Amino acid sequence: MSWVVEGTSPFQGQTAAAMAVRLCSSLQRSLCKKRGRFTEWRHESLSKHFYQTAAPQTASALYTQEHQAIRESLRKIIDTEINPYVDKWEEAEQFPAHQIFKILGQAGILGVSHPTEYGGSGLDFSYTIAVAEELGNIRCGGVPMAIGMQSSMATPALSRFGSDELKRQFLAPTVAGDVVACLGVSEAGAGSDVANIKTNAVKKGDDYIINGSKMWITNGCQADWMCLLTNTSTGASHKNKSLICLPMKSPGVQITKKIKKIGMKSSDTAQIFFEDVRVPSKYLIGEEGMGFLYQMLQFQEERMWGVASVLSQMENVIQETVNYTSQRKIFNQPVLNNQVVHFRLAELTTEVELLRSLLHRTVGLYIDGNDVTKLASMAKLKAGRLVREVSDSCLQYWGGMGFTDEVNVSRFYRDSRLLSIGGGADEVMLAIICKYMGILPTKK
User: Which residues form a coiled coil (predicted)?
Assistant: First the structure.
């Protein structure tokens, strides 16, 4: 549908778009004639006469030159130590976590927001988000997720609430990349419903005796220790849980299954059982009974991290689709020339940029000490849905090639589906948003 501009304008009857073009052209000719260089300027963009430079694609009010320097340093590692081997790791369904984490640890990537006393850089959370965005340039989703588990999912509660002794024993070597960490929350019967976990730890002398199981454990097959959420008493489900550092080589820990998945193949995912596992009570993170709260706080950082990690992935898939459709021809013209294609890619690019703005606003508020639960949930919800839109639309424009495993878009199609499930399903995000809006029905 065209918008017709009415009135006495000399452009009466023209569409709004056509009128805008004519107005800009008229203004441009006027500017150029004043400078006596109409023939030189007539093909240049009008905006160049008002702005010195175009805004760089990575421009952000949240990021400084220091953020960009960290990203550039990480990008070199990605290009030399990770991307050349991704296809091999995807085929093997596991990447060498200890080897890669050691490289990243030496570069200071695994602890940018952790305290300097334990090997971190002590920078605010925006630097962790900058790292997550850059990790999106890895040519698969599994490796970034595993790195995020090490730096931003298994360790925030320990970093914030753990004792000095505990942080020196578990956090410092994790930041250095000397050990691999995992997070034990989900169970076969308790994924989104974290309050319903059944694993329990009974105090016996100076130890906890742990029994139960965990499911969907990222890094679980290679991990040296687990940040374990377990019941430590009876009573209200949000007051009877604790977080415990559990060494994975403890007697009674059994990795019973390496789970096969449709995506995220280079990241190993385990099912783990605990049978009378004895752990010193000093391995408790913070206070007993506070584990549920600690984990909810930990989830906020995990969700923001997850959103950040897919921004570059989406941008890369869109750009690769632009490149492919500009070369691929059907009916004697490039696929990209079809309005339905280039308009859709423009819409998706706009949505990605809007998601980035929401995330950066959320991170900025979080750094200032605000409760961002609602905004983080909104960003997580939007990201989980947008990655599906981007991957599905772009795969469609690749035609038959998109249905093979030879191109990045098909891997992204498989990998990205997890975002609406892991770290809090879309439905959980909606419930949280409804709660903050005051429209979530209360149980009677």
Answer: none
Do the bridges between strand 207-218 and strand 269-280 make them parallel or antiparallel, or are there none, so unpaired?
antiparallel
Within a domain: 299: yes
- How many domains would you assign to the chain? 2
Q: Is residue 91 part of a domain?
A: no
Does 302 qualify as catalytic in the annotation?
A: yes
What's the CATH number where 312 sits? 1.20.140.10
pTM of the shown model: 0.86
Segments forming the whole domain that contains residue 7: 1-54
CB 104, CB 177: distance < 8 Å: yes
Please give the Cα distance from 189 to 194 (Å, whole number). Answer: 9
Interval 5-51: pLDDT, tens: 334 444 444 444 444 445 554 554 454 454 444 444 444 555 555 56
pLDDT in tens, 155-194: 999 999 999 999 999 999 999 999 999 999 999 999 888 9
- Cα separation, 379 vs 303, in Å, equals 8
pLDDT for residue 239 is more than 60: yes
Q: Which of 40, 302, 315, 427 is catalytic?
A: 302
Phi, psi of 258 (to 5 degrees): -95, 115
